[in-house]
Amino acid sequence: MKDLTAAALRYKHGELHVLDQRKLPGEVCWQVCKHENDLVALIQGLAIRGAPLLGISAAVWVGHCAMRGDSNEQLTNTIALLRASRPTAVNLMNYLDRLQKLVDSGADRFLLSDEVEAIFDEDVALCAAMSEHGAALVAQGDSILTHCNTGSLATAGAGTALGVITAAHKQGKNISVWVDETRPLLQGSRLTAWELEQADVPYQLICDSMSAGLMAAGKVDRVMVGADRIAVNGDFANKVGTYSLAVLASHHHVPFYVVAPATTIDRHCNDGASIPIEQRNADEVRGASGSFGSCIWSPAGAPVYNPAFDVTPAELVTGWILDSGVYTLDDVIAGALVSI
Ligand code: MRU
């Protein structure tokens, strides 16, 4: 398989390296995957994360296994293991199902590795297309609020919502960004703030609970977020806290956009109620950990509810910015997402 390079993933000389996002921004540390269990642990620990990159990293590992000569039975087992590593982001299932179909059809290792290279290159192109469609909606001087991390750390290319934001900045639109810190795992303050600094985009970090006051004060022109799974009726799951932003945006008449590639659509999922939502470890809510160390601030055994995602209903979405264009609620009701 050819060498592949993204901001948070490298496949070089037959080895898969992933940037350990748990350690950012304090430390830039790459981890080598030597076994599928390494990759599962890195995925479950959120060292590697973001809907598209979860699927791409799993696909690259399967391509690697094919090229080292794993049998079809071994490949099928590896695909099943990786497919179950995180439940909500459907890009993981979509890409692995694509590879399983090839395995089932008796494709040789070269066809499998070609498919993995195509998956990688396609995601770069999907990001570029979303950035172009989305940046066209951004007005001069806009203040854009975003949640979680949806940039180059989450994809093979420029990102989804953050890709749009950085594209609008490159177009000279003089934008500024409100970055939700994104409790409990702080993807906003650790990763999005880091990416925006690198891209020289003006931003201010806020606690998640500050967005209501900002919208009431007229300081947010639009909200742009990513997605982990979009149902065909337009409901979508994204990092927990997205739904409250959508309700707030609707109340304050702030346009609310979701930015995602076609690989985030689940054509078997009719509505948001059918999206599986990952429950995570209680200590993530009892405190925090990262490159700064670990800290628990609640009573040690405090009972915790920790869904990693929530579902935003379609009627709260102003537009779905996909790689194929921008879709309205009327388009979605007419079945646009079924036929993409
Ligand atoms: O738990 P994470 O960090 O993998 O969650 C990521 C998100 O929710 C992103 O918003 C989503 O994957 C879209 S990324 C391009």
Quaternary structure: single chain
User: How many separate domains make up the residues?
Assistant: 2
Which regions have little confidence, pLDDT < 50, spanning 5+ residues? Answer: none
State the secondary-structure class: alpha/beta
Query: Strands across the major sheet, in which order?
Result: 7-6-5-8-11-16-17
Bound molecules: 5-S-methyl-1-O-phosphono-5-thio-D-ribulose
What features would you highlight for this structure?
340 residues, alpha/beta, Four Helix Bundle (Hemerythrin (Met), subunit A), Rossmann fold, 2 domains, 7-stranded mixed β-sheet, 39% helix
Description:
The protein folds into 2 domains: 4-127, Up-down Bundle (Four Helix Bundle (Hemerythrin (Met), subunit A)), CATH 1.20.120; 138-339, Rossmann fold. The strands form 4 sheets. Strands 7-6-5-8-11-16-17 form a 7-stranded mixed sheet, with helices on both faces. It has a 4-stranded antiparallel sheet with strand order 1-2-3-4. 39% of the residues lie in helices and 19% in strands. The mean pLDDT is 98. By secondary structure, it is of the alpha/beta class. Helix 3 packs antiparallel against helix 4 (90-104). Bound molecules: 5-S-methyl-1-O-phosphono-5-thio-D-ribulose.
